[in-house]
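Input record (Table S2, row 146):
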Amino acid sequence: MFWSSLYHWFKMIHLIAMVAWFAGLFYIFRLFVYHVKHRDEPSVVAALITMEEKLLRIIMKPAMVVTFVFGFAMLYVKPVWLQYGWIWVKIVGVFGLVAYHFYAVSIHRKMAEGQYPLTERACRFINEVPTLFLFLVVFLAVIKPF
Ligand code: HEM
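Output record (protoporphyrin IX containing FE complex):
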Protein backbone atom coordinates (compact mmCIF):
# COMPACT_ATOMS: atom_id res chain seq x y z
CA MET A 1 0.00 0.00 0.00
CA PHE A 2 2.77 2.44 0.97
CA TRP A 3 4.89 1.55 -2.10
CA SER A 4 1.92 1.65 -4.49
CA SER A 5 1.11 5.19 -3.30
CA LEU A 6 4.58 6.12 -4.55
CA TYR A 7 4.09 4.56 -8.01
CA HIS A 8 3.27 7.81 -9.78
CA TRP A 9 6.21 9.56 -8.15
CA PHE A 10 8.47 6.74 -9.34
CA LYS A 11 7.10 7.18 -12.85
CA MET A 12 7.61 10.92 -12.72
CA ILE A 13 11.26 10.54 -11.68
CA HIS A 14 11.72 7.75 -14.26
CA LEU A 15 10.51 10.04 -17.04
CA ILE A 16 12.52 13.10 -15.91
CA ALA A 17 15.70 11.00 -15.71
CA MET A 18 14.95 9.45 -19.11
CA VAL A 19 14.64 12.94 -20.66
CA ALA A 20 17.99 13.99 -19.09
CA TRP A 21 19.66 10.78 -20.34
CA PHE A 22 18.31 11.39 -23.83
CA ALA A 23 19.50 14.99 -23.86
CA GLY A 24 22.98 13.50 -23.57
CA LEU A 25 22.38 10.59 -25.95
CA PHE A 26 21.23 13.10 -28.59
CA TYR A 27 24.13 15.49 -28.01
CA ILE A 28 27.20 13.32 -27.49
CA PHE A 29 27.73 12.31 -31.12
CA ARG A 30 27.10 15.90 -32.21
CA LEU A 31 30.07 16.85 -30.01
CA PHE A 32 32.02 14.04 -31.69
CA VAL A 33 31.18 15.58 -35.10
CA TYR A 34 32.82 18.88 -34.00
CA HIS A 35 35.67 16.96 -32.37
CA VAL A 36 36.56 15.11 -35.60
CA LYS A 37 36.08 18.27 -37.67
CA HIS A 38 38.48 20.33 -35.52
CA ARG A 39 40.96 17.54 -34.74
CA ASP A 40 43.91 19.72 -35.86
CA GLU A 41 43.06 22.59 -33.48
CA PRO A 42 44.43 21.65 -30.02
CA SER A 43 42.53 24.31 -28.04
CA VAL A 44 39.18 23.30 -29.59
CA VAL A 45 39.95 19.60 -29.04
CA ALA A 46 40.80 20.25 -25.36
CA ALA A 47 37.49 22.11 -24.84
CA LEU A 48 35.50 19.36 -26.57
CA ILE A 49 37.16 16.59 -24.51
CA THR A 50 36.12 18.45 -21.33
CA MET A 51 32.55 18.95 -22.61
CA GLU A 52 32.21 15.28 -23.59
CA GLU A 53 33.65 14.08 -20.32
CA LYS A 54 31.31 16.27 -18.24
CA LEU A 55 28.27 15.36 -20.31
CA LEU A 56 29.00 11.63 -19.93
CA ARG A 57 29.95 11.72 -16.23
CA ILE A 58 27.73 14.41 -14.71
CA ILE A 59 24.56 14.14 -16.82
CA MET A 60 24.30 10.89 -18.77
CA LYS A 61 25.64 8.32 -16.31
CA PRO A 62 23.55 9.44 -13.28
CA ALA A 63 20.47 9.94 -15.49
CA MET A 64 20.80 6.41 -16.91
CA VAL A 65 21.16 4.94 -13.42
CA VAL A 66 18.12 6.87 -12.09
CA THR A 67 16.02 5.81 -15.13
CA PHE A 68 16.88 2.18 -14.37
CA VAL A 69 16.40 2.41 -10.60
CA PHE A 70 12.92 3.95 -10.92
CA GLY A 71 11.96 1.69 -13.84
CA PHE A 72 12.73 -1.34 -11.68
CA ALA A 73 11.10 0.31 -8.63
CA MET A 74 7.85 0.44 -10.63
CA LEU A 75 8.24 -3.25 -11.47
CA TYR A 76 8.74 -3.97 -7.77
CA VAL A 77 5.49 -2.18 -6.97
CA LYS A 78 3.59 -3.63 -9.96
CA PRO A 79 5.22 -6.97 -10.83
CA VAL A 80 2.18 -7.78 -12.99
CA TRP A 81 3.88 -5.83 -15.83
CA LEU A 82 6.38 -8.69 -16.09
CA GLN A 83 3.58 -10.92 -17.40
CA TYR A 84 3.26 -8.75 -20.53
CA GLY A 85 5.41 -8.99 -23.65
CA TRP A 86 5.89 -5.21 -24.08
CA ILE A 87 8.00 -4.83 -20.94
CA TRP A 88 10.47 -7.53 -22.06
CA VAL A 89 10.82 -6.06 -25.55
CA LYS A 90 11.19 -2.64 -23.91
CA ILE A 91 14.00 -3.95 -21.68
CA VAL A 92 15.77 -5.36 -24.78
CA GLY A 93 15.39 -1.92 -26.42
CA VAL A 94 16.78 -0.28 -23.28
CA PHE A 95 19.84 -2.54 -23.46
CA GLY A 96 20.33 -1.25 -27.02
CA LEU A 97 20.44 2.27 -25.55
CA VAL A 98 22.89 1.18 -22.87
CA ALA A 99 25.11 -0.33 -25.59
CA TYR A 100 24.92 3.00 -27.46
CA HIS A 101 25.83 4.86 -24.25
CA PHE A 102 28.94 2.74 -23.64
CA TYR A 103 29.91 2.88 -27.29
CA ALA A 104 29.92 6.69 -26.89
CA VAL A 105 32.13 6.31 -23.78
CA SER A 106 34.60 4.17 -25.76
CA ILE A 107 34.72 6.63 -28.69
CA HIS A 108 35.24 9.53 -26.26
CA ARG A 109 38.17 7.71 -24.60
CA LYS A 110 39.81 6.90 -27.93
CA MET A 111 39.46 10.48 -29.19
CA ALA A 112 40.80 11.83 -25.89
CA GLU A 113 43.93 9.72 -26.59
CA GLY A 114 44.23 11.20 -30.08
CA GLN A 115 42.78 8.25 -32.01
CA TYR A 116 39.96 8.92 -34.47
CA PRO A 117 38.10 5.68 -35.24
CA LEU A 118 35.11 7.42 -36.89
CA THR A 119 34.69 9.93 -39.67
CA GLU A 120 32.60 13.07 -39.26
CA ARG A 121 29.97 11.55 -41.54
CA ALA A 122 29.82 8.34 -39.47
CA CYS A 123 29.30 10.42 -36.29
CA ARG A 124 26.42 12.29 -37.94
CA PHE A 125 24.86 9.02 -39.01
CA ILE A 126 25.27 7.29 -35.62
CA ASN A 127 23.75 10.37 -33.97
CA GLU A 128 20.35 9.37 -35.44
CA VAL A 129 20.30 5.93 -33.76
CA PRO A 130 18.84 6.98 -30.34
CA THR A 131 15.78 8.43 -32.09
CA LEU A 132 14.87 4.97 -33.38
CA PHE A 133 15.23 3.45 -29.90
CA LEU A 134 13.24 6.31 -28.36
CA PHE A 135 10.39 5.66 -30.76
CA LEU A 136 10.43 1.92 -30.05
CA VAL A 137 10.66 2.18 -26.25
CA VAL A 138 8.06 4.94 -25.83
CA PHE A 139 5.70 3.13 -28.22
CA LEU A 140 5.98 -0.04 -26.12
CA ALA A 141 5.64 1.76 -22.76
CA VAL A 142 2.65 3.89 -23.79
CA ILE A 143 0.69 1.71 -26.26
CA LYS A 144 1.58 -1.63 -24.60
CA PRO A 145 0.60 -3.54 -27.76
CA PHE A 146 1.01 -7.02 -26.22
C1 HEM B 1 15.44 -1.13 -17.69
C2 HEM B 1 14.97 0.10 -17.71
C3 HEM B 1 13.51 0.42 -17.64
C4 HEM B 1 12.52 -0.22 -16.93
C5 HEM B 1 12.62 -1.46 -16.03
C6 HEM B 1 11.29 0.50 -17.17
C7 HEM B 1 10.06 0.18 -16.64
C8 HEM B 1 8.92 0.96 -16.73
C9 HEM B 1 7.66 0.71 -16.10
C10 HEM B 1 7.36 -0.47 -15.19
C11 HEM B 1 6.80 1.70 -16.43
C12 HEM B 1 5.34 1.88 -15.94
C13 HEM B 1 4.35 1.55 -17.02
C14 HEM B 1 2.97 2.11 -16.67
O1 HEM B 1 2.70 2.39 -15.49
O2 HEM B 1 2.15 2.25 -17.57
C15 HEM B 1 7.51 2.59 -17.31
C16 HEM B 1 6.97 3.73 -17.87
C17 HEM B 1 7.54 4.43 -18.89
N1 HEM B 1 8.82 4.26 -19.36
FE1 HEM B 1 10.22 2.94 -18.67
N2 HEM B 1 11.55 1.53 -18.03
C18 HEM B 1 12.89 1.52 -18.34
C19 HEM B 1 13.55 2.41 -19.19
C20 HEM B 1 12.91 3.35 -19.98
C21 HEM B 1 13.53 4.13 -21.01
C22 HEM B 1 15.02 4.08 -21.38
C23 HEM B 1 12.57 4.90 -21.57
C24 HEM B 1 12.66 5.86 -22.71
C25 HEM B 1 13.31 5.59 -23.82
C26 HEM B 1 11.35 4.64 -20.88
C27 HEM B 1 10.15 5.25 -21.17
C28 HEM B 1 9.00 5.12 -20.43
C29 HEM B 1 7.77 5.88 -20.63
C30 HEM B 1 7.53 6.96 -21.70
C31 HEM B 1 6.86 5.46 -19.65
C32 HEM B 1 5.45 6.01 -19.39
C33 HEM B 1 4.39 5.07 -19.91
C34 HEM B 1 2.99 5.53 -19.55
O3 HEM B 1 2.74 5.95 -18.41
O4 HEM B 1 2.09 5.45 -20.40
N3 HEM B 1 11.58 3.69 -19.93
N4 HEM B 1 8.80 2.13 -17.47
